């Protein structure tokens, strides 16, 4: 590697050694991809010294815990020479478990031959525990919502939606794909319930939910009743412009239901949609995307009725 005049290889090595994240380099030309370099951050992360780690296979920290779905993703990336981002259960020298977010990238020589993999490894145990606790809380919330509101046809429950969104997020990170997370609110729905009653409100939500479910019915879509009168959507693959067109069509379909709403400026029920379409970053979480979609729908609702606010 050629370095700029002001950067020596020794300076670069010292800089990498100061990084908090673990940095590793594995030899792609040898069986099991043995480690040939680890920085001080990885020594601290793993509890092993560099002398103990050099020559060990990249799977060293997995121990006997090999029944993990993302290990197959990692192995496929190593075999095919492509980048990947996975989160694995790993074990330190003292046997303690930690969740390791591992990003690997291939390095090729001037002829294009694969020679090495560089890995960036981060302890994300606190984040994973937080997500696990959130899923447990969602289980309780799901049970409570199920008692209060009967399920809507074609609409996933919150638990399934959260699982699907987490899976979509991991896939989008790994494949650098677009992911949309959306919130849908019926306009002036509190007034709708006050004027027509809760039974009419539930019937209205079933009609709206049915229309949303039919509009987002691909395998790469998932819809849930997020709160009593809100719907959440996760969808992969569409560009921001394509999603905007899709949402405009959905608003037209809801208006076409002609659900009377005398407190609405148009005299019929309309909806407000907010959300985001993006290629998720490494640090993106499902909770963060939902919060941003929630903020977008409220921004749209404050601005007008029968509208959408899609941030890309």
From TrEMBL:
Domain GGDEF: 177-312
Gene3D superfamilies the UniProt entry points to: 3.30.70.270, PAS domain
SMART domains, sorted: GGDEF, PAC, PAS
Domain PAC: 84-136
Residue ranges occupied by any PAS domain in the UniProt entry: 8-81
Protein name: Diguanylate cyclase with PAS/PAC sensor
